[in-house]
Structure formats: structure tokens, C-alpha cells
Design a protein that fits this description.
Layout: H1 2-33, H2 39-61, H3 73-102, H4 105-109, H5 128-144, H6 147-175, H7 177-185, H8 193-203
Helix pairs in contact: 1-2, 1-6, 2-5, 2-6, 3-5, 5-6, 6-7
Length: 204
């Protein structure tokens, strides 16, 4: 049964990774040709996100390729369960702050870029939704003590980073110098230099 779960997780992982790569290619073409992301690309993006989280959750639940398996289960599982749950809570808080500031479902889904949001959580990170999802994916692997789930989290972060780089080029074309200034003052994900930069700007 364990081997079956492992085989299912690996097969589904390869499929969803291919969907993610294809989504990035479509997004790049959409931004270059149509100046916005098509509904089909947006649908594929949502499908990729939902399927990836589902597969990572599946791997975590069945502890696919468990680590520290030689150590007594309950004590180690309780430790990583608590660690994963704590990190997941941070992810949820960041995502709630993101949804509170984005103020628009079409804007959140990437259907429109009518406004550059720079306050609230967006003053600390340019991509709070991605930061929250990245942290959440890592928490799944820790929660389930699953090497496979942690590997999926790394792949998720890499694919998501590629998508963000494409979107940044697009946002620069739309908002120009305002966006570049925002980028110079706010980290892509998180960083301790943000406060220093703002303090320096106030002194100047």
C-alpha cells in the first residue's frame, strides 16, 4: 500500500509540474502578445495551484519518503506536526493580510492590473501571496515528515519564482518608473533591508 501511494504521488507530481511549466510559457506569450493573461491561462494557473497543493497534501498525509523514520514515531511526529502547524499559521496570517489589501478578486486572480497596491503587507513584500504559499508548502512537508512533499515545495518555489519574474517585467511596462521605485524599496519576498531603506529615504 505504501508503494502504491508513493507511485501515485510521483505520477501526479510529474503531471502537475508539466502543467506548471506550460502555464509559465503561456503566461509569457500572453503578456508579450495580448498585454494581459488570457482566461484559459488564468484557469490553467488556478488548476496548477490547486492540484499542486492537493498532491503535496496527499504526500504529507501518507508521509511519502518519510524522514527520521528510525526514530520513535509519536514523539518525532508530534514535533514536526507542531512545527509544520506553527509555520502554516504564519502562512495563513500573511495570506489574510494579502486578501485584505488586494481588495479585488479579478486583481487577485491576475485578470486585471488596474492598480499598484503598495501599502499594508505590500509595503513589506511585493509578493505576499507567493510568500504565504511558499511557507505553506514547506509547512506541509514538515507536518507530514515527507521528503517528497518538501521536494515538491522546492519545485513549487522555483516555478513560482519564474512566474513572478515574468509578471514583474509586465508590471514594469504598465506602471513604469513608479513600479521600479516600489521594487527598489520593497523586497520581492522578504528582507531586513526594507526598514533600513525607508529610514534612509526619510533622512534624505
Amino acid at each position: 500500500m505504501i508503494q502504491l501511494h508513493r507511485s501515485i504521488a510521483i505520477a501526479l507530481s510529474l503531471l502537475v509540474i508539466l502543467i506548471g511549466i506550460y502555464t509559465i510559457i503561456r503566461t509569457k506569450k500572453d503578456y508579450e502578445c495580448n498585454q494581459k493573461r488570457s482566461k484559459l491561462t488564468s484557469a490553467l494557473c488556478l488548476l496548477y495551484h490547486d492540484c499542486f497543493v492537493a498532491i503535496a497534501s496527499y504526500s504529507a498525509w501518507f508521509s511519502t519518503w518519510p524522514f527520521f523514520s528510525s526514530i520513535p514515531f509519536y514523539g518525532m511526529h508530534l514535533f514536526f506536526f507542531t512545527l509544520g502547524a506553527s509555520i502554516a499559521l504564519v502562512s495563513i496570517i500573511i495570506y489574510i493580510m494579502y486578501m485584505f489589501k488586494i481588495e479585488s478578486t479579478p486583481r487577485a486572480l491576475g485578470f486585471t492590473h488596474d492598480k499598484l497596491v503598495t501599502d499594508g503587507i505590500f509595503s513589506k513584500t511585493r509578493n505576499p501571496q507567493s510568500l504565504a504559499r511558499n511557507i505553506g508548502m514547506i509547512s506541509l512537508g514538515l507536518w507530514g515528515r515527507s521528503f517528497h512533499s518538501l521536494l515538491l515545495a522546492i519545485i513549487w518555489i522555483v516555478i513560482n519564482h519564474c512566474y513572478i519574474l515574468i509578471e514583474e517585467d509586465y508590471l514594469e511596462k504598465i506602471f513604469g518608473k513608479i513600479y521600479l521605485t516600489y521594487c527598489s524599496l520593497t523586497p520581492r519576498y522578504c528582507g531586513i533591508l526594507t526598514l533600513f531603506k525607508k529610514t534612509t529615504r526619510q533622512k534624505v
